[in-house]
Design a protein that fits this description.
Rossmann fold; mainly alpha; 2 strands; two-stranded parallel ribbon; 3 helices; about 90 residues
Length: about 90
């Protein structure tokens, strides 16, 4: 069975998404740090990013000052800061 992660749907009520997400989480046991980068609104608790992060407590989530007001330079700086911290952990 071939799974294309780009075909996944973000709706947890979708049986197909739930099965595919669980299978992918089992397949993709990574030995690398993961930084979850949500979009505007910070991906609520039922969003696939939040579900996957909850299943992997060692994953880090981008921290920005305001999830609802996008200032591109601030977000890029936040990503750079967190990536620098992660590099020191590896």
């Amino acid at each position: 069975m071939t799974i294309n992660p780009f075909d996944l749907r973000c709706c947890l009520n979708s049986r197909a998404f739930t099965l595919d997400a669980r299978l992918l989480m089992e397949i993709w046991q990574m030995d690398y740090p993961v930084l979850v980068v949500p979009g505007i609104g910070n991906s609520g608790p039922l969003h696939w990013q939040s579900v996957w992060q909850a299943a992997h407590p060692d994953w880090q989530r981008l921290a920005v000052e305001d999830w609802d007001y996008v200032v591109c330079d601030d977000w890029v700086s936040a990503i750079e800061r967190q990536l620098e911290r992660v590099r020191h952990l590896v």
